[in-house]
Amino acid sequence: MTRPTRADLNTLRHHNRQVIVDIMRRYGSLSRAELARLTRLSKVTVSEVVDDLVAEGYLRAVGLGTADMGRKPMLMAFKESAGFVLGIEVAPRIVRLIVTDLMGDIVATFEESVVAAAGDDLIRALCALISKARNHLPQSRYGLMAVGIAISGWVDFAQGVVVAAPNMTWAPLALQERLASCVHVPIIVDNEANAALAYEHGHGILRDVDHAVYLSVGYGLGSGMLMNGAVYRGHKGMAGEMGHMVLDPAGPLCTCGNHGCWEMYSSEKALQRMMSGCTPALTVNEGDLTHWAIQQARQGAPCARQALRAVGRSLGQGIINIANLLNPQTLVVGNGMVEAWEFLEPEMMAVLSQAGLSATTQDLIVTPSPHYQDAAVRGAAALACDAVIARI
Ligand SMILES: [Zn+2]
User: Fold this and answer.
1) Most buried of 76, 82, 89, 170 (most Cβ within 10 A)?
2) What are the DSSP calls for 74-95, one per residue?
3) Interval between CA 334 and ligand 1 midpoint (Å)
4) How far does the centroid of ligand 1 lie from the alpha carbon of residue 258, in Å?
5) How far apart, in whole angstroms, are the C-alpha atoms of residue 76 and residue 36?
6) Distance 15 CA to ligand 1 centre (A)
7) Residue 162: pLDDT above 80?
8) Are 39 and 128 part of one and the same domain?
9) Domain check: are 48 and 88 in the same one?
């Protein structure tokens, strides 16, 4: 039998640390004996790892547990405030930033309007916002540990490059590399629908679901796919751009260069186009459009009602295609247009119920995201948090 190498031992040690950190984050507080039982590691190994993690500031003693006889055991807990991460969402008109601890609890929130005509403008704006957030970090041992960024567009996940963002003018942009000039911690860049999906799967309504699709219906239409419990990213991390499936080659021109993309019928952009001839005429900025349309529709304005219903029907038609292609258990609708759910849902469901005998739509659960406005930014923070935990 060959002796284990130093590399083997380091791998084993890292694995044991990861197992213990994972259990501690899930269970709250545990004694060393309970940890040994749950992890099936030896008591000696558990004690060694726990002592290291306490010395490094990732675990802390939180008091004595109970015992039938003999000494009461010391309970340990994960120290969520050992450091902090930033989650950032770059949307077409706005940048949102949250600061979370290592359990994903939000400790500060920032928002800034951004009209980035060039990549340089965006990098400058992000660096300024990150610096501002840094000044608001609570005292901690490690300070800022990672930054996660969710962005509306095609993202090369492995390289941290925004390859194209049809609703923004500055792409392509090597975001990870460019931000390294002002941020000296790991930076993770992902598509906003993937980030939102990852959040819902890890912490939200998809926690016990293995096959799901997240539709991000905002100014554009993005999507993320969960297959066998993992986010499906495709060859270069850019899978899931369902909003750019061409439905009608003779349809309106999309920002991606094609005509008649699904996004042109199922998004705020579609709503804007459909309501351009409405009376009263549009009097609001793009960002407030959905809200304005809902107010008009609630007051009975036929044009706003028709436009919202048309978006709902188009969503339903696309969802039938998704159901037939991927057979998800749950389809979550998120982002800004969820605010109009009362108008979208009846039309969507009417289309789905008329889908004939399609077995894929009969059991499909279609639900709005309870975190629809901030799932992407929370997802960005969760990606950053995962990167930190993986390095412990
Ligand atoms: Zn398109």
Assistant:
1) 89
2) EEEEE-GGG-EEEEEEE-SSEE
3) 19
4) 5
5) 13
6) 44
7) yes
8) no
9) no
* pTM score over 0.90: no
364/386 same-domain check: no
* Domain membership of residue 23 as a residue range: 6-78
Residues 86 and 73 in one domain: no
Residue 27: Cβ within 10 Å count: 13
Residue pLDDT, tens place only, 335-381:
989 999 999 999 999 999 887 656 777 889 999 998 878 999 999 99
235 & 359 share domain: yes
337 CA distance to ligand 1 centroid (A)?
18
Residue showing tokens 């490690």: 142
Query: Helix (H, G, I), strand (E, B), or coil: what is residue 97?
Result: strand
Flag whether 203 is in a domain. no
Contact present, 247 and 261 (Cβ < 8 Å):
yes
- Taking the centre of ligand 1 as the mean of its atom positions, its distance from the CA of residue 46, in whole angstroms, is 53
Burial group, residue 264, by CB count within 10 angstroms (0-12, 13-18, 19+):
buried
- Measure the CA–CA gap between 72 and 94, rounded to whole angstroms: 53
